[in-house]
């Protein structure tokens, strides 16, 4: 017998996939609770748990007197908790793939400036692809100072966490600064993400520091513009 928890998660995943595929157009009414109960043969509480996950991730919205409508077909990135690329994947039941690793690369002027390194310093570089429902929707290129020892066997796992690897070596990540802008895909990114040239992308540049205020990561992250949107929560100082 399938437990209620597993059941509502499977319903949530199926509905999210159908929204992403365009079965329920943005701005149009979504299925009602009774319709979902009949469709899946489950209780109202199970349906409500599944719907709440879709609400929390920004796919649907409940409007009093109107019902539930579809808000977006894009994955939601919330800028509240600092997670590594793979930790974010694991949280959302997605996965990533290591496609390259260079542990001995001489940093150019830009990298030296970003990571506050002396001229001629060495860095490591690794690249990952991110998948949702087996579709590639993101690419990440990460540079770290050479004193952080990164090995292929540690990074190869699809849920490997860079920040956990750093923590095990005494570099406890605490803060990051991100710059976000809109770009279009070049030939390399188009081939990696399997999209047409000049497709809109979200570009995120991240600089990460540890508990001793050391720069430990410079990341360049590209997300497909048709699959992602950012949510930022701000507070009055």
UniProtKB/TrEMBL annotation:
One MF annotation (Gene Ontology) recorded for this entry: DNA binding
Upper taxonomic lineage: Bacteria, Bacillati, Bacillota, Bacilli, Lactobacillales
PANTHER family membership: MANNOSYL-D-GLYCERATE TRANSPORT/METABOLISM SYSTEM REPRESSOR MNGR-RELATED (PTHR44846), MANNOSYL-D-GLYCERATE TRANSPORT_METABOLISM SYSTEM REPRESSOR MNGR-RELATED (PTHR44846:SF1)
SUPFAM superfamilies: Chorismate lyase-like, Winged helix' DNA-binding domain
Matches recorded under Gene3D superfamilies: Chorismate lyase-like (3.40.1410.10), Winged helix-like DNA-binding domain superfamily/Winged helix DNA-binding domain (1.10.10.10)
Keyword Hydrolase: no
UniProt keyword Transit peptide present: no
Pfam families: GntR, UTRA
Domain HTH gntR-type: 5-73
Entries under InterPro entries matching the protein: Bact_HTH_transcr_reg, Chorismate_lyase_/UTRA_dom_sf, Tscrpt_reg_HTH_GntR, UTRA, WH-like_DNA-bd_sf, WH_DNA-bd_sf
Gene Ontology annotations of biological process type: negative regulation of DNA-templated transcription
Name of protein: HTH gntR-type domain-containing protein
Alphabetical UniProt keywords: DNA-binding, Transcription, Transcription regulation
């Amino acid at each position: 017998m399938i437990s209620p928890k597993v059941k509502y998660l499977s319903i949530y995943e199926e509905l999210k996939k159908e929204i992403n595929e365009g079965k329920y157009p943005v701005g149009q009414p979504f299925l009602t609770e009774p319709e979902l109960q009949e469709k899946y043969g489950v209780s109202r509480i199970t349906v409500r748990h599944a719907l709440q996950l879709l609400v929390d991730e920004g796919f649907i919205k409940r409007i009093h007197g109107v019902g539930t409508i579809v808000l977006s077909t894009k994955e939601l990135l919330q800028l509240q908790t600092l997670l590594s690329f793979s930790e974010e994947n694991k949280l959302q039941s997605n996965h990533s793939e290591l496609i390259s690793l260079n542990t001995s690369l001489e940093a150019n002027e830009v990298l030296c400036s970003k990571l506050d390194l002396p001229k001629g310093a060495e860095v490591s570089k690794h690249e990952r692809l991110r998948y949702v429902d087996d579709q590639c929707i993101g690419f990440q290129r990460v540079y770290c100072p050479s004193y952080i020892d990164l090995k292929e066997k540690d990074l190869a796992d699809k849920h490997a966490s860079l920040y956990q690897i750093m923590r095990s070596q005494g570099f406890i990540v605490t803060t990051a600064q991100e710059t976000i802008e809109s770009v279009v895909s070049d030939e390399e990114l188009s081939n990696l993400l399997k999209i047409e040239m000049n497709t809109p992308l979200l570009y995120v540049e991240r600089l990460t520091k540890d508990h001793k205020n050391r720069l430990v990561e410079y990341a360049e992250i590209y997300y497909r513009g048709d699959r992602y949107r950012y949510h930022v929560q701000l507070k009055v100082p």
